[in-house]
């Protein structure tokens, strides 16, 4: 028999390894991720890489039952952590072991694992939960649309808490598998690619996969009876569009718009670079709302977007968000201009391509038709405040800033920036300041003053300032008009008209002014009122 001798130094080292970190080293994760507009949005202490959602939904009763498996990595020593969930949890397990939990606030689920979690370790959280999403109100509003044949989750900046537990902020993006069991004859629509379907005992399961990082508010679920069209792009990308069977008079115009998704996406690739995701499409459920939302790979459209006939401009806007907003997401909700200003400007570029008014002409029209005392100019697109996050100024004044940038640096650098930015921050997050720095780096010009004028000053830029920026310029003051880049038709110097001339595309673009008017309550005010578009902001949850 051989006895092993342990020398003192080795013994000390082995004892050191055996001693766990003291309880004092483990602290609760923050109940918010630190957003400047919504301090309670998201959570601290961990980073999610994947959500696996296994759901069962009964349209007749609106009962949703779910098992969510969340794969994450701890970013600190955690004694407990929060998830965002509005429905009622029945059981929580962390790394396979039963965990204690309690509901707090409007949508916080506080989880205390059986064993504290060490920093930089992989963790798996399983939450079993159930409830009727339509009965969940936070601050008097809901992100869940009850439809005659089912339900829909689509809202900004929050929708996840109505149907799955998450770290609900764009800073923590993850991949998704969404598996939904619904009664035969009913379909379940979600993001990404439909991997498979199967039927058994009167129920059908739909399995969806979104394989690129996705913000939680961009995850969507729609259950109902849909007419579905499928196709593939020339590059082999799967396309799936879904239309509620009861859209009434809006059915034809909805199809006439959304069936042009592939055409629009191909054109946007010429402007913004390669499409960043694994599928294309859109869906139109039978909801009473009037807004649209850039839910990743498959935008949500309200039927009312097509009440006046086909409107491809709304499709352009939501698909542009796949690059600006979805692939590159806000670092903080105050950075919303990096989403909305660019999606709006894409509508101006589409008008230019279609010969219905150049981006320059639309910019001139916006500047000329908004009087200096219009509240429009008091909103700062670069930091509009939570109440005005989706104000029309973020869109139109935000797009004006881009036209001023285009005039300042020229088409070559401008379109290089539009393509380069989504590559620089692909699948990540970025701020307005990041964009300003990037534009300066590409163009080699100092641009802080230009962006300050158009994004941050709560006044209408003076006529000389606008003329210097090439906006509503006097005769001979404008240099070159928009070049034929990115499919544009181009323009030449024009004299400033005595009365603003409305571009041909303006009415269709203006019809999308309620594009993010997410107010579902009666009397909701759209962006033209000079107030927030509703959009769930200031609702008390955040």
From TrEMBL:
SUPFAM superfamilies: Leukotriene A4 hydrolase N-terminal domain, Metalloproteases ('zincins'), catalytic domain
Entry EC number(s): 3.4.11.2
Domain Peptidase M1 membrane alanine aminopeptidase: 310-454
Molecular-function GO terms, alphabetical: aminopeptidase activity
Record's keyword terms, sorted: Aminopeptidase, Hydrolase, Metal-binding, Metalloprotease, Protease, Signal, Zinc
Domain Aminopeptidase N-like N-terminal: 49-218
Compositionally biased tracts (Basic and acidic residues): 508-525
Pfam annotation, one family: Peptidase_M1
InterPro entries per UniProt: Aminopeptidase_N-like_N (IPR045357), Aminopeptidase_N-like_N_sf (IPR042097), Peptidase_M1 (IPR001930), Peptidase_M1_aminopeptidases (IPR050344), Peptidase_M1_dom (IPR014782), Peptidase_M4/M1_CTD_sf (IPR027268)
Start-end of Low complexity biased regions: 477-495
PANTHER family documented for this protein: AMINOPEPTIDASE N (PTHR11533:SF297), PROTEASE M1 ZINC METALLOPROTEASE (PTHR11533)
Protein name: Aminopeptidase N
Organism: Streptomyces roseoviridis
